[in-house]
Design brief:
The complex is a heterodimer. Chain A is mainly alpha-helical. Chain A has four helices and no strands. Helix content of chain B is 69%, strand content 0%. In chain B, helix 5 runs antiparallel to helix 6 and helix 6 packs parallel to helix 8. Chain B is globular, with a radius of gyration of 22 Å. The chains are: A mainly alpha, B mainly alpha. Chains A and B meet through helix 1 and helix 3 of A and helix 1, helix 2, helix 3, helix 4 and helix 8 of B.
């Protein structure tokens, strides 16, 4: 098993963990964090799979670089929206019921 | 009910993980050898580092759209916040301030170096912009500069400059027959011009994602 494949498999685990977090967490901050874990897993799969043969491939690396920057912007936007929701309604989750527990 | 949903998510997650791992282990080798293609065209790209060549030459339109996405995210964020937040001065700790003052020239030097190094080794506009943004956030946290309340004229120009330069180069080169196909003789200079504009704008945009949020009412 090459190191690249190992990274890709670790990426799969991160992706699944993050996806479960997005589904199970109700607090918006936790959801945003879980979404970031998911994204990191996807990046790891892309970069890891591309260097299974031992040679680094610049094309997926450039794509992941683009993805990281977009993920940072999306995270900031999500946090800003969560902050606006909290300021207007006092809630930290999307549904009324979930906010209370 | 809650417990049932949780068990369902865990079971689905385990199934998904098993399926993905099987798919990855069984994946056949790539049909197209992209590294070889990049290597073959690197000489005409105007830069010597393959990742920079892919980012700004071979797949330049990805990067162009990415900068647009960043601008849209910032504008949406500005739209979801209110006016000037009541100024809460961060604790002016002399040690933090002294360290921030020491770090700032190094941050600027590092950003300039990363921008220049992108042509032939890992580096480039994104890394340089991220370092600039980190410097701006550090200054605000140390209490050396206030958070941003709103985009005044010069700030707006700085935020959009990178995208506008990129767009202008793309528009000027439309006659080449494909989007962002640089004439090989000019490629190096054009990429450096675009990257310089991007460094400034990305630094301001990434800093703005933090400084506008702290400086405005939610």
């Amino acid at each position: 098993m090459s190191a690249g494949l190992l990274y890709a498999l670790a990426g799969v685990l991160l992706f699944v963990l993050g996806a479960a977090g997005v589904l199970l967490a109700t607090h918006l901050l936790r959801r945003v964090l879980a979404f970031n874990v998911m994204g990191s897993g996807a990046f790891l799969v892309l970069v890891g799979l591309a260097q299974r043969g031992g040679v680094a491939d610049p094309v997926p690396q450039a794509m992941v670089l683009t993805g990281i920057v977009v993920a940072v912007a999306a995270t900031a936007l999500a946090l800003g929206l969560a902050r606006a929701l909290h300021a207007r309604t006092g809630r930290t989750a999307l549904s009324e019921e979930a906010s209370r527990d | 009910m809650r417990r049932l949903a949780r068990a369902g998510v865990v079971a689905a997650g385990l199934t998904l993980a098993a399926a993905l791992i099987l798919a990855i282990v069984e994946l056949p080798a790539a049909m197209v050898a992209l590294p070889a293609q990049v290597e073959a065209h690197l000489a005409q790209s105007g830069v010597e580092h393959p990742v920079t060549a892919v980012l700004l030459n071979f797949r330049g339109y990805d990067t162009l759209l990415e900068v647009a996405v960043l601008l849209i995210a910032l504008i949406t964020l500005l739209g979801s916040t209110g006016g000037h937040a009541p100024a809460t001065a961060p604790d002016a700790n002399p040690l933090t301030q002294g360290l921030a003052r020491l770090a700032l020239p190094l941050v600027l030097l590092m950003a300039g170096y990363l921008l220049w190094a992108g042509a032939h080794r890992p580096g480039g506009a994104f890394q340089a912009g991220a370092v600039l943004a980190a410097g701006a956030v550090l200054m605000q946290l140390a209490g050396l500069q206030p958070a941003w309340a709103g985009p005044h004229r010069w700030l707006r120009l700085g935020l959009t400059l990178g995208f506008l330069v990129f767009l202008a180069v793309a528009a000027a080169l439309l006659g080449e027959g494909a989007l962002l196909r640089y004439p090989p003789a000019w490629a190096g200079g054009l990429i450096l011009l675009i990257e310089a504009g991007l460094t400034l704008s990305l630094g301001l945009i990434l800093a703005g994602l933090f400084l506008f949020v702290t400086g405005r009412r939610p």
